[in-house]
């Protein structure tokens, strides 16, 4: 449950950042880039053609930093999830922790779980510093444009005012070339979903307890439309199978297939939109039942809300 809360909180901040800042900035910069070069081509084609390749000196470092930033952010989130698991376990079993006088040990484990995230944060900060520093190449680009523009004025009957106007247009984009990055939305979508699920030689252990193997060579094949019950004692891996299917965790080995397609290659948002889950201990937000159900599908009609409520009641009563 703690991984879900951590993922929701971090992903909501990313979505807010994209909607509130990244998308408008991207549109602004894209429009500024296009209009700047359009004005340059119309006013002085030769100077603009010479200056055009220089934008790669700004874009390439930005793309490289974007990839490094996303990779680092993903690893940092994984490290935070490990720490969140420890915190959730300690809080939920606080009486046990207290009775065994394990407070210091728990705090030490939590601190150790955060050490890797600190190292990744420092590495991410270094990459950002290098990327921001690389923008100083704009001064060299401006100097080059001024020199080449002066050659056009002296030897090709160019006008100083036109050179200045083109240079100003180029400068407007060079001074703010930001190409924002956002989470990748890559992944396949199964067009005609049947619903066949297969666990093939799956190996899994929780990040906080890697020495405790939960699933070892686990095989399960569930044809579409079939009802299957997983039976076992506490800690045997029943809930783990569901968590793996929802991609809250990745298996250490083996494959989880949906209609023969590895779920790790499927678009995450689409995959989770195809799954409905009634957990043993459901958590409700402080609002109405209708609003809680609409969190799963905001555009749902009242008929769909009622149908979903009936399904929840049937599942809860074991029908």
TrEMBL record:
Entry keywords, A to Z: Glycoprotein, Membrane, Repeat, Transmembrane, Transmembrane helix, Transport
GO cellular component: membrane
MF annotations from Gene Ontology: ABC-type transporter activity; ATP binding; ATP hydrolysis activity
Source taxon at top rank: Eukaryota
Domain ABC transmembrane type-1 residues, every copy: 1-170
Transmembrane segments: 42-65, 129-149
Protein family (similarity comment): Belongs to the ABC transporter superfamily. ABCB family. Multidrug resistance exporter (TC 3.A.1.201) subfamily.
Protein known as: ABC transmembrane type-1 domain-containing protein
Source organism: Ensete ventricosum (Abyssinian banana)
Organismal lineage: Eukaryota, Viridiplantae, Streptophyta, Embryophyta, Tracheophyta
């Amino acid at each position: 449950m703690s991984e879900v809360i951590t993922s929701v909180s971090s992903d909501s901040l990313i979505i807010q950042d994209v909607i509130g800042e990244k998308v408008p900035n991207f549109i602004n910069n894209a429009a500024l880039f296009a209009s700047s070069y359009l004005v340059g081509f119309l006013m002085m084609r030769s100077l603009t053609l010479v200056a055009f390749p220089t934008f790669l000196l700004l874009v390439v470092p930005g793309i490289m930093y974007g990839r490094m930033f996303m990779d680092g952010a993903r690893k940092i989130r994984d490290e935070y999830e490990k720490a969140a698991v420890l915190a959730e376990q300690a809080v939920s079993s606080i009486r046990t922790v207290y009775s065994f006088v394990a407070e210091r040990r728990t705090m030490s484990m939590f601190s150790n779980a955060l050490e890797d995230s600190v190292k990744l944060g420092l590495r991410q900060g270094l990459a950002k510093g290098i990327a921001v520093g690389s923008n100083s190449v704009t001064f060299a680009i401006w100097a080059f444009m001024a020199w080449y523009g002066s050659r056009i004025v002296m030897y090709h009957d160019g006008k100083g005012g036109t050179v200045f106007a083109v240079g100003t247009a180029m400068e407007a984009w060079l001074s703010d070339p930001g190409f924002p990055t956002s989470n990748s939305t890559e992944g396949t979508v199964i067009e005609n979903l049947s619903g066949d699920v297969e666990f093939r030689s799956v190996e899994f252990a929780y990040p906080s307890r890697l020495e405790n193997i939960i699933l070892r060579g686990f095989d399960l094949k569930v044809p579409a439309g079939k009802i299957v019950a997983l039976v076992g004692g506490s800690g045997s891996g029943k809930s783990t199978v569901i968590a793996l299917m929802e991609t809250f965790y990745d298996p250490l080995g083996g494959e989880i297939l949906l209609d023969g397609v590895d779920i790790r290659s499927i678009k995450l948002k689409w995959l989770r939109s195809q799954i409905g889950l009634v957990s043993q201990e459901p958590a409700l937000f402080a609002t109405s039942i209708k609003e809680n159900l609409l969190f799963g599908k905001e555009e749902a009609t009242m008929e769909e809300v009622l149908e979903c409520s009936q399904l929840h009641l049937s599942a809860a009563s074991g029908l």
